[in-house]
Amino acid sequence: MSAKRDERRRSERRRCRVQVKFWNDELEGLGFTGDISNRGLFIETTQALAVGTRLHLEIKLETGTFYAEGVVARLLKVPRTVQSVMKRGLGVRILDLTEVIRKVSTPEIPGSGLEIDLRDLSKLATVYVRDIKRGGLFVPTEKPPERDTTVTVRLHLPEPHGHVDVRGVVIHVMENPPGIGIKLLDMDQLRGKLALIITS
Q1: How confident is the model over 70-104, as pLDDT tens digits?
Q2: Residue 191: left if φ>0, alpha if ψ -120 to 50, beta else—which one?
């Protein structure tokens, strides 16, 4: 009984209303969190998804945008008569890193030819503040790899800094303009290096 109480404490829900975008290869939706815990969140949405549906999550907080992987654990349907006081939506369990690696990781594509020209300091500063500082990056490419693929992107920096290779996971594939949105890995070292170049 004590173990169950401890588990409930660790998974205590907190009211938190922030925007959440969710998607997979077949669907895309938008909602707001009703509550959140260290194991998952409830998304208020009219979209009904089957239990077990895998989702990519984009959670927008005041401190930045965060990405996660989740699976629908509960579908809450609410009669119209009580929708003013109870919201329908999805209970989503957040997958931990071990599950993500086991279920969706794919081999990195060596020599993928992905690169961005950031030799202009003003362009570097814009991309850094708009994307990199928040953990993401748009990479133009006519031949985008599939979602969930780990890729290496070469960033060409202002002289005399040469270039830096960064790793990321593809989370969006765009058609117009053609390219991919990636979630960057190994962020601390990259942010420090680029911030130093911009402010020097």
Answers
A1: 889 888 876 666 556 567 888 998 886 554 444 44
A2: alpha
CA 90 distance to own-chain centroid: 18
Residue spans per domain, the chain: 2-103, 115-199
Question: Whole-model pTM?
Answer: 0.46
Q: Locate 104 and state its tokens.
A: 């969706």
Domain 115-199 adopts which CATH fold? Thrombin, subunit H (2.40.10)
| Class for the domain spanning 2-103 | mainly beta
